[in-house]
Amino acid sequence: MISFDGLRKAYGARAVLDGVSLGLVPGRVTGLVGPNGSGKTTLIKLLLGLARADAGRILLAGAPTDEDGAYRARIGYAPQSPRFPENLAIGEIVAMLRALRPTATLDESLMDDFGLRAEWATPVGTLSGGWRQKVSLACAFLFRPDVLILDEPTAGLDPIAAGVFKQAVRHAREAGRTVLITSHILSELEELADDVAFLTDGRLRFAGPVSLLLEQTGMRRLEPAIAALLGGLRLATTGPGAMGAGRDARPA
After folding, report:
1. Considering the domain boundaries, does residue 252 fall inside one?
2. Are the beta carbons of 147 and 60 closer than 8 angstroms?
3. Across the beta sheet with 178-182, what order do the strands follow?
4. 3-class secondary-structure state, position 76
5. pTM, whole model, 2 decimals?
6. Domain assignment of residue 18, yes or no
7. Domain contains 16
8. Going residue by residue through the chain (252 aa), what tens digit of pLDDT does each one get?
9. Which of 72, 174, 222, 229 can bridge 190 by disulfide, Cβ–Cβ 3.0-4.6 Å?
């Protein structure tokens, strides 16, 4: 569904992405991980058309994304720190988004599961961080997008809301959607991710099934496996060709 091919992006003399190639396939959840400043946010900005690559290309369903912005209608995005017009109520935010895509098929299940309708008339400016996150996630799923980009999606969510979100991601995977999640909470990411892409210093150091990463690092959990990569462990097989090999069983 999505192919990042040789992406390079620099700000001044600093290379933020240095030849990143990565494939994301439908029906799988990919965890995008790496330390602060590794290039994760820039990669997402390039996909969303909020920045332009210096070299390389991005393909969505085989078509270059730089030809026009129509491809973005196929993407649902929840940012790490959602921002809405402070004076608008939740219901007004949703109505505004629906007006932008009047013919789209809607999925309002997260609106109901998060209990947003009970707060329909509440101005966004009075909401806590967790409630804003619920609004953001419900809007990301609203139009049944082919691709979901979820940046630190459980930040601020209580355990019940986090469970609701995780179930929504599982349903999206079952529906054959492509899901990319960035998160520093690796224990939660481990519950959802089929694949992991690890960036550091703007380079892709590993891309493949979680089970392959655990096998090659000799770890039983995702967090110590990522810590091993951060510590400089070099793996035998990495790269975009390892992605999408099927949901593998993991060591107990």
Report:
1. no
2. yes
3. 75-78, 147-151, 178-182, 28-33, 195-200, 203-209
4. strand
5. 0.90
6. no
7. no
8. 899 999 999 998 889 999 999 999 999 999 999 998 899 999 999 999 999 999 999 998 888 887 678 899 999 999 988 989 999 999 999 999 999 888 888 999 999 999 999 999 999 999 999 999 999 999 999 999 999 999 999 988 999 999 999 999 999 999 999 999 999 889 889 999 999 999 999 999 999 999 999 999 999 999 999 998 888 776 654 444 445 444 443 433
9. 222
